[in-house]
Write a structure and sequence with these properties.
This protein has 190 residues and is mainly β. Helix content is 2%, strand content 51%.
């Protein structure tokens, strides 16, 4: 209740049509790649029926299965994800060093999605970085004023890290980055 329900299928060999409660929700014919469908509009209270029709052959079979056994079916997990109406859609984190190899340059790009059909109010992203000893390096709060209905908003952060521990195979220095999405009241959504 109150969440967007995403059907995730890790991989299907062959082509597949997905149905929820007798209604077609999507089609996939790309092997080795996840297929995701927002099935929220197709759900009802109580029990629901998920059906998948898998075809061994499609026009993609001749492109993808040249060197494989001709088997059709699920190859990876299938599961449902319940996500808040405003949620983190994707993120990219890049840790690098400056030209002198002295200081770190951390770049974080985050896409926040509003599934709702109306504009979402204030939200915020909290980004925390801790060093290998679990000591806080920095914490930043990035405000999100509003997100238009059914849209994705991108938020970016570029942060200088003074003299970070450098990673090598002999001495791996692993930092931990956490991203939190909070609503206008400060409650953590994700």
């Amino acid at each position: 209740s109150g969440k967007e329900i995403i059907l995730h299928c890790g991989s299907i060999s062959g082509a597949a049509t997905f149905y929820v409660n007798g209604r077609r929700v999507g089609y996939s014919k790309v092997a080795k790649v996840p297929a995701e469908f927002n099935i929220t509009p197709f759900l009802k209270s109580g029990e629901n029926l998920l059906a998948v029709q898998i075809f061994k052959w499609s026009d993609a079979s001749y492109l993808e299965d040249q060197d494989f056994w001709r088997l059709a079916g699920f190859e990876r997990d299938v599961f449902l994800i319940g996500r808040p109406r405003v949620s983190i859609e994707d993120f990219c984190v890049l840790g690098d060093l400056d030209a002198a190899y002295q200081n770190g340059v951390l770049s974080v790009d985050i896409d926040v999605r509003n599934f709702a059909s109306d504009q979402a109010g204030k939200h915020s992203l909290v980004i925390n970085l801790t060093d290998p000893r679990k000591e806080k390096v920095f914490s930043k709060t990035l405000p999100i004023k509003s997100i238009r209905a059914k849209e994705i908003q991108s938020i970016s952060l570029a942060q200088k890290i003074t003299r970070p521990e450098k990673w090598s195979a002999e001495h791996p220095a692993l930092y931990t980055l956490t991203i939190e999405l909070k609503d206008g009241t400060g409650q953590v959504l994700e």
